[in-house]
Amino acid sequence: MATLGFAGNYAGTVVAMPLSGVLAVSLGWESVFYFFGSLGVVWAVAWLIIVKAGPEDDPFISEEEKTYILKSIGQNEDEKKSIKHPWKAILTSTAVWAIIASHFAENWGFFTLLTQLPTFLKDTLNFELEKTGFISAIPYLAMGCLLGVSGYLADWSQIKGYLTTTQVRKYFNCGAFLAQTVFMMLAAYLLDPVGTVACITVAVGFGAFAWSGFIVNPLDIAPNHASVILGISNTFATIPGIVSPLLTGIITSDKTKEQWQVVFYISSGIYLVGCVIYWFFCRGELQPWAKTNTINDVVESPRSYPEKQVIVNEQFDMTSSEQKKN
């Protein structure tokens, strides 16, 4: 469900890129900012009206869905917990930093292509400006479609017991990063209109499987602190949005093919570093510093969460002993 929600990010890109090209050619580049800025205001108003702080405050949600969501985060409707975040433990957790590193790596490639792909297609492959928007949208269309597939496969492999949570996160995330590393390098090597666009499309498309890894990982290791972890991760992940376009502008000052190859090689290298870090430090089980005294009715399988199962069993044994004494 989380990966399906994030698919909207790429659906927006698919629509925005070709539309931006049309607006820029017909009404001038300023019209792009006016149009999407106005849409942002409309979205903000809709968000304030529709979105609620929690499922218990949503008048349109069913009782079954509300109960499921609350139980999945270790709460019930009558329980309003004031969560105290263990900041030191969060900031010193290698599992958290693995998420941050992967988020940074994925966004480096994302922002590099998002901001520079139309320019690259125009300067290096000689596409017309109006057409670059449509062609630039193809990779994100592939990713938007594959996000639903990756989310389904990740859940299916866990439900069937084929993979543990840690294995799902590692295999999906690192497999995607390795594919992106290879195809970004191929795109830089080929520099052919068809071959390069195809390689970029495959590279971006495989990124969908990474989102079934690091982006949902905070819910595995610390469900009660997932929002904080994702907030910290996203803070670091926005840095590429600032640095990557600046660095690309410096590297491609002469707009030569060799300079653009360097840009792609840098992205490939960052993907590879993110892959290595995540492989060694990723965790899929509830972390010790994130455990609470609340017993969740939805208990994961011992194969996926061995530590949580032991804790629940110990608490159940203690409760049973006390009842016998009484």
From TrEMBL:
Annotated compartments: Membrane
Main location: membrane
Membrane-topology descriptor: Multi-pass membrane protein
Lineage: superkingdom: Eukaryota
Domain Major facilitator superfamily (MFS) profile: 1-286
GO terms for biological process, alphabetical: monoatomic anion transport
Xref: Pfam families: MFS_1
UniProt KW keywords: Membrane, Symport, Transmembrane, Transmembrane helix, Transport
Bilayer-spanning residue ranges: 7-27, 33-51, 89-114, 134-154, 174-191, 197-216, 228-250, 262-281
Gene3D superfamilies hit by this protein: MFS general substrate transporter like domains (1.20.1250.20)
GO molecular function, a single term: symporter activity
One cellular component (GO) term of this entry: membrane
Annotated protein name in UniProt: Putative permease of the major facilitator superfamily protein
